[in-house]
Structures are given as structure tokens and as C-alpha cells.
């Protein structure tokens, strides 16, 4: 079937503008395949990111018909519906500077990500056996957060960032949850500066938009609330007060 693809584009010289292309697709054609066809046969200047093409790297996240999706996992049958079933609109992720077309600058996103120290901080020295041991139950706590592929779909979809661009964002908070739930890790004191702040955990308003768009099905809002409880408990154990309580922020 003939489908019209409307792409919101940008370059420093021309600013923001729209381009429309007509492509031949069927219901099982992926959006990324149509974009590659356009770039090869209609407009070689069209710019977008892609890598593994199997929903693992997260590099081709974009907004397709108003929703954050991975172009490599989105079929035309998923988006060609309603009155405009033969039109698909595509734009770059929100809340990040657009460098060109569908490519965003990730510097701010990665700075926030790095602020939660998303790496292992062991409680003890490596045992003589050469490995840290976890029970299956302990490891299961990490499974969901470990599935994050860093696509930033959740960051783009988050309504809190519309009004507070300094919010650390759900992607960083998912990584914090992954390590705070690790029985071998002792990094909670080092992560508190980023987490226990007005722009950290407490800025989340439980709107669930991050959870709705996650291509890996991660219950992001649930993980954030779980991390809030862990930080509260830690502060109480240290006879300290969370920044939320000091600032009078409602913490759900």
C-alpha cells in the first residue's frame, strides 16, 4: 500500500521544517525499513540513528504518530489506523536538543544518567573464590531494571520534564533502582545527592507515561516509587530527613 510519511526535520541552516514522502509498504513493513528506503532512494540527507535493528540497542527511538517507539520494532500495522491510516508522522524525541532531523543531542541525558553513579560499588572485597554470590531471589530483584536499553523513550514521554527540565528523569532513576536493589552493592550514600533532591526522585508525579512507552515493558513508575521507599528507609535508619520532607514536597 502507498503510505505518506511526514517527518519533522531540523538543520542549523534551515531550522525546523517538514518533509513528506510516499513509500510502498505492507502491514509487516517496519518503520525503520521505510526510513532507510527514503534515505537511499528519495532524500540522502535524511538523518536518523539505527544500529542493531532488533530492539536491543535503543538507538532508533523516535516519536511515531505522537508516541515514543523503536522504529525497528514498529510495524505499519501498529500505526496505520484511524482516519489517517495512510499517513505516518515522525519526529525526534522530546526534551532533548535536536541536532539534525531525528537525531538528538544526548549530553544532558547522559549527565543526568551518570549522576546516579550507574555502576557497581561492592560492599566487600572480591572473595577468594573470585566472584560475589547472589541467591536467585536476590538476583530476581535486578531483572526488570536490568532490561533497560537506554533508548530515552521514557525521558521523552515524561510530562514532568515539560515544566521542569532539571528533573533527573526516569531513565536515570531506573538505573539507580537497579543498583540500589543489588545485594552486593553499597552505593546508596554516594547516590543520595542525585536521588534525594527536589529534582531527583521527589519530582516524579506518578503519571505513568514512562511506563506506557517503555519498549521493554519495564514498570518504571513502580521502580521509582520503590526507590523512594528505599531512600526514605535509609534516611530514617541514619536519623536523617529526606529533602522532600525538608522542602514540604508530597511524596505519594
TrEMBL record:
<dbReference type="InterPro" id="IPR025192">
    <property type="entry name" value="Succ_DH/fum_Rdtase_N"/>
</dbReference>
<dbReference type="InterPro" id="IPR050573">
    <property type="entry name" value="SDH/FRD_Iron-Sulfur"/>
</dbReference>
<dbReference type="InterPro" id="IPR004489">
    <property type="entry name" value="Succ_DH/fum_Rdtase_Fe-S"/>
</dbReference>
<keyword id="KW-0408">Iron</keyword>
<keyword id="KW-0560">Oxidoreductase</keyword>
<keyword id="KW-0001">2Fe-2S</keyword>
<keyword id="KW-0816">Tricarboxylic acid cycle</keyword>
<dbReference type="GO" id="GO:0008177">
    <property type="term" value="F:succinate dehydrogenase (quinone) activity"/>
</dbReference>
<dbReference type="InterPro" id="IPR009051">
    <property type="entry name" value="Helical_ferredxn"/>
</dbReference>
<feature type="domain" description="4Fe-4S ferredoxin-type">
    <location>
        <begin position="138"/>
        <end position="166"/>
    </location>
</feature>
<dbReference type="InterPro" id="IPR036010">
    <property type="entry name" value="2Fe-2S_ferredoxin-like_sf"/>
</dbReference>
<feature type="domain" description="2Fe-2S ferredoxin-type">
    <location>
        <begin position="3"/>
        <end position="96"/>
    </location>
</feature>
<comment type="similarity">
    <text>Belongs to the succinate dehydrogenase/fumarate reductase iron-sulfur protein family.</text>
</comment>
<dbReference type="Pfam" id="PF13183">
    <property type="entry name" value="Fer4_8"/>
</dbReference>
<dbReference type="InterPro" id="IPR017900">
    <property type="entry name" value="4Fe4S_Fe_S_CS"/>
</dbReference>
<comment type="pathway">
    <text>Carbohydrate metabolism; tricarboxylic acid cycle; fumarate from succinate (bacterial route): step 1/1.</text>
</comment>
<dbReference type="InterPro" id="IPR001041">
    <property type="entry name" value="2Fe-2S_ferredoxin-type"/>
</dbReference>
<keyword id="KW-0003">3Fe-4S</keyword>
<keyword id="KW-0411">Iron-sulfur</keyword>
<feature type="compositionally biased region" description="Polar residues">
    <location>
        <begin position="240"/>
        <end position="252"/>
    </location>
</feature>
<dbReference type="InterPro" id="IPR017896">
    <property type="entry name" value="4Fe4S_Fe-S-bd"/>
</dbReference>
<protein>
    <recommendedName>
        <fullName>Fumarate reductase iron-sulfur subunit</fullName>
        <ecNumber>1.3.5.1</ecNumber>
    </recommendedName>
</protein>
<dbReference type="Pfam" id="PF13085">
    <property type="entry name" value="Fer2_3"/>
</dbReference>
<keyword id="KW-0004">4Fe-4S</keyword>
<feature type="region of interest" description="Disordered">
    <location>
        <begin position="232"/>
        <end position="252"/>
    </location>
</feature>
<dbReference type="InterPro" id="IPR012675">
    <property type="entry name" value="Beta-grasp_dom_sf"/>
</dbReference>
<keyword id="KW-0479">Metal-binding</keyword>
Amino acid at each position: 500500500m502507498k503510505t505518506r510519511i511526514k517527518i519533522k526535520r531540523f538543520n542549523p541552516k534551515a531550522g525546523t521544517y517538514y518533509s513528506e514522502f510516499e513509500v510502498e509498504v505492507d502491514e509487516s513493513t517496519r518503520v525503520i525499513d521505510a526510513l532507510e528506503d527514503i534515505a537511499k532512494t528519495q532524500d540522502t540527507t535524511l538523518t536518523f540513528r539505527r544500529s542493531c535493528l532488533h530492539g536491543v540497542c535503543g538507538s532508533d527511538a523516535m516519536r511515531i504518530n505522537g508516541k515514543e517507539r523503536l522504529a525497528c520494532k514498529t510495524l505499519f500495522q501498529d500505526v496505520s489506523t484511524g482516519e489517517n491510516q495512510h499517513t505516518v508522522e515522525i519526529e525526534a524525541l522530546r526534551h532533548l536538543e535536536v541536532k539534525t532531523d531525528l537525531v538528538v543531542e544526548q549530553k544532558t541525558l547522559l549527565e543526568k544518567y551518570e549522576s546516579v553513579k550507574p555502576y557497581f560499588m561492592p560492599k566487600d572485597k572480591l572473595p577468594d573464590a573470585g566472584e560475589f554470590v547472589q541467591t536467585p531471589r536476590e538476583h530476581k530483584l535486578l531483572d526488570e531494571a536490568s532490561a533497560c536499553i537506554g533508548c530515552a523513550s521514557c525521558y521523552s514521554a515524561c510530562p514532568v520534564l515539560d515544566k521542569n527540565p532539571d528533573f533527573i528523569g526516569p531513565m536515570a532513576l531506573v538505573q539507580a533502582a537497579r543498583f540500589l536493589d543489588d545485594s552486593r552493592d553499597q552505593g546508596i550514600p554516594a547516590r543520595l545527592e542525585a536521588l534525594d533532591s527536589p529534582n531527583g526522585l521527589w519530582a516524579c508525579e506518578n503519571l505513568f507515561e514512562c511506563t506506557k512507552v517503555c519498549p521493554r515493558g519495564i514498570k518504571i513508575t513502580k521502580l521509582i516509587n520503590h526507590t523512594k521507599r528505599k531512600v526514605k528507609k535509609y534516611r530514617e535508619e541514619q536519623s536523617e530527613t529526606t529533602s522532600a520532607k525538608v522542602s514540604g514536597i508530597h511524596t505519594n
